[in-house]
Amino acid sequence: MAETISLMDIDDDKIHTKPNKGKNVILSSSNPEPKSVPWVEKFRPQSLSDVAAHRDIVETIDRLASSNRLPHLLLYGPPGTGKTSTILALARKLYGSQVNNMVLELNASDDRGIDVVRQQIQDFASTQSISFGAKSAVKLVLLDEADAMTKDAQFALLIEKYTRNTRFALICNNVNKVIPALQSRCTRFRFAPLDAVHVSERLRHVIEAEQLDVPEGGLKALIRLSNGDMRKALNILQVQTPHLFYPHSDYV
Ligand SMILES: Nc1ncnc2c1ncn2[C@@H]1O[C@H](COP(=O)(O)OP(=O)(O)OP(=O)(O)O)[C@@H](O)[C@H]1O
Ligand SMILES: [Mg+2]
Predict the structure, then answer these.
(1) Is ATP-binding set as a keyword in this record (predicted)?
(2) Is 140 left (phi over 0), alpha (psi -120 to 50) or beta?
(3) Where in the sequence is the domain holding 109, given as residue range(s)?
(4) Most exposed: 78, 82, 219, 248, by fewest CB within 10 Å?
């Protein structure tokens, strides 16, 4: 009889729930071996239509961007719900092959200080945008982990100074750590934890693509354990697959 290993045995500490967290995904140039790619990256939604759940938010952002009315954005909500993925997919759609020139990816927990970051934004915003067809596209400053910034640094951002040709997309988990002055300059979108149906759909997609043999019970337990955090669901699936689902294989 096959030995069953409970999902409760999984040591969460061993699971990197935020490998890279999506930082500098656009700008990263390395192309690692497919086998070593974490599934969270391998299965990161590439286009807006790949983003599971949050269809109303994604379609609203898409509509605003397509009609040249993109506001400054503030995307907030718990980890692994698609905030960074949505902005990256939007950037790809807006800029295509020009994405590296048109997007400045910053991480708010960057320890170089706000003056350096501001200078970077200033330099980025002041260079000429490339024309896309008839209209000149606005550039995008992607500021991840905005809730890690001190209040002073948030005040120092002065996002309206660059509004003529630049939009900010702020991303954070805890919106209460973003100062009201900054919040009010952005259109806010809350990314709720994914519901079980969407986690299940997405996991089934990965299970099929990776040709895994996952029993229904294991899948259900995984959905329950991930609690709407898709990154966590994928990481557990990848790390634990040999232990959970092939307990007697040589791979263990
Ligand atoms: N809505 C979603 N649809 C499809 N895949 C998703 C979704 N949300 C998360 N994922 C998966 O989880 C990974 C992490 O998602 P993402 O980086 O977008 O999360 P996040 O909301 O920015 O989290 P954090 O707050 O921790 O930065 C993605 O690479 C993708 O594989
Ligand atoms: Mg993120």
Answers:
(1) yes
(2) beta
(3) 48-190
(4) 248
Q: Does the C-beta of 84 come closer than 6 Å to ligand 1?
A: yes
Distances (CA, A) of 134 to 83, 95, 128, 137: 30, 14, 15, 9
Atom 30, ligand 1: residue with shortest CA distance: 44
Query: For residue 5, what is the DSSP state?
Result: -
Q: Is the CB of 38 under 6 A from ligand 1?
A: no
Report how far apart, in Å, the C-alpha atoms of 24 and of each of 53, 76, 106, 155 are. Answer: 24, 19, 8, 24
The answer to whether residue 88 sits within a structural domain is yes
Domain total of the chain: 1
43, part of any domain: no
Name residues with Cβ closer than 5 Å to ligand 2, which is an ion.
22, 83-84
Instruction: Please say whether the beta carbons of 222 and 237 come within 8 A.
Output: yes
Ligand 1 pocket residue status of 202, Cβ below 6 Å: yes
Q: What is the pLDDT along the chain (252 residues), one digit of tens a residue?
A: 333 334 444 444 444 444 444 444 444 444 555 567 899 999 999 999 999 999 999 999 999 999 999 999 999 999 999 999 999 999 999 999 999 999 999 987 776 777 888 888 889 988 866 656 545 579 999 999 999 988 888 888 878 788 888 999 999 999 999 999 999 999 999 999 999 999 999 999 999 999 999 999 999 999 999 999 999 999 999 988 765 555 455 543
CATH of the domain at 152: 3.40.50.300
Query: In a mutational test of the pocket of ligand 1, which residue from 84, 90, 205, 207 has the highest number of ligand atoms less than 8 Å from its CB?
Result: 84
Q: Could you tell me if residue 160 is inside a domain?
A: yes
238 domain residue, yes or no = no
